[in-house]
């Protein structure tokens, strides 16, 4: 049984390793020295904006690593409505990627990361739309919750609360942050938060500032604003804040935000929007040392002495003094102590471990585990410096190590303690990102069942090892996440999250099924089957299995069929659509598989999806997969389509559903002879911004059009490819980066009703623009040459008509089309009109 003394210390356990999927943190002597200096600084800054990549990547490292303030970034959304330059993920999946990219950036710049429950529903021109589609009161509450937890002295917004913000989400983030600045100090606002976390109290920040900017096309800085130079070189870091900012910004790879390391002087400007205006520094009027804490004078003196006597070649010499400091901090800790005091206690514990050279990890040789499995967790310790330390025991998810260790740790000696665990009653959904546990009830908000989790960037690790240590006679519990560790032949030693997986997973194909595709002769081209795919995460013989497909009622495909299951193998069952789908009962069907292991029956309706990129940890989440059926008639002309990939989209899958044979082209494939076989060529979104070779293929592509082919270019962000200007169409046109139609229900006007793109082979009507998702168009064509025709007009509310969403031009015997309509969003969403319009673009008739 644990003693009372141990239990008290457990309540304030220290985490010595970065959360799942990261190499354990190791401080060098300069890192330790900077952290010692940080112990003296008690200031806290909270930076607030709307999206991942909205943060000021030069300011955050300056605040965190130069000024040594506790620094945090609160992004109201996780960036689900953005675009993806590195893969095909959109929506929630893109939000997972961008969350981890923000965490990667924070590991560079030293700040912390927080989120609200707001969902990014796409570009918004007005704050009113964002505040409406979000539950503005709940998002306000989330900001207040974060303020009360962090207790910042200064709050900084990236944007103003008006049109100068350039995006409705940007302006809304400022409006809500300024409201929260006052609301957080009012005990009558969001009083339920004090019950959720008794340590919370009303908090009034000293001031809230707007970090003004000069983005070239808009300059909001002014001479009367507070000015700070943030680009100074730090010899302890070996870099400047500008260098770190470039590295941190480059973590936003899905958004194409790679940036250089910035040298030289960098200036930041601040306008006061609430509280007392600063005259010289952000923290004017704020005590940022230990004088702000009752009993802090002695602590300040202890820290000064530790820094004065710090030995860069023997950090362990500071351990006794740090332990004494830790005990003194515990003496002044009170239930109502400010958050910064608790933060400093954690920082001291972290420093004790690093100065002692204590390296700890808990790893497995497999990435996933089932609830019925037994897995070995190897708990490893090495005390690399000559500090006085003992190990008493290790727990993994409350499973106590059988052997009472109580052994002294020798210097630079490896200690391995293998511990077997069985997850038992834990369910695989414990690995689900907490904000995805419940389905969204409102377009702009996630549902979080446990409101105490609000603000957290990511789940805590599903499995943790707790090391019971004694250092200089004081006991510590050190919590380390269990990770999957392996060695890659080309990348070396790597760590990934260790997670719970389901016994079975299931998905359906295709995502969208077209039921009424006809060729120009009226022949039906639609597939008559859907495909149910299940994959076991274990191997076993003769497992009774039952497969279901559900619409309004359950259809049993097979029942209690003994199945030999091989771990990781995909089993595909073809199901006739007529057998399971009734168009009168909706557009969707789902599936589930039930298995019996021993006397226990288990049903698995979810797909367990993994997302992997080299710059961030592997991500896993569950969702209920389905097939969406499109019953509307889609007529197609042609057979073979060439597709030049862009920044990740699912249009090739849509083309296959339309009955086309699709060939994806590389640089080498784009020759005049090879292109002759295709009825049309389609370029993916931003393809011209991604592939410099396309400019070199201009003459080949124009020759293809001239000879009678149709070239369809989906939107490009600008006409710049690397250092060169892209050549896209046969005649000149520009791209208006600010011209977009963000209201997905914006009326569409047929400016050229007789144009072939609106008539052949499908008659396009208002119905074809119903049910669109997120937006109509983006990066529209501007200033087109007179040879272009613009058959469509549209505009957002209270704006003038735009006709740049689709332009076409005849060139020789063929046709060119630039399409800024967001087909890449509509086709995966199963919007019938998007399929019909794409079919018409492909079928544009040859010219005589």
Automatic annotation (TrEMBL):
InterPro entries with a match to the protein in the record: Class_I_gatase-like, GlcNAc_PI_deacetylase-related, LmbE-like_dom_sf
Top-rank lineage group of the source organism: Bacteria
Database matches in Gene3D superfamilies: LmbE-like
UniProt KW Signal keyword: yes
Signal peptide coordinates: 1-21
Keywords annotated in UniProt: Signal
Any one GO molecular-function label of the UniProt entry: hydrolase activity, acting on carbon-nitrogen (but not peptide) bonds, in linear amides
Listed name of the protein: N-acetylglucosaminyl deacetylase, LmbE family
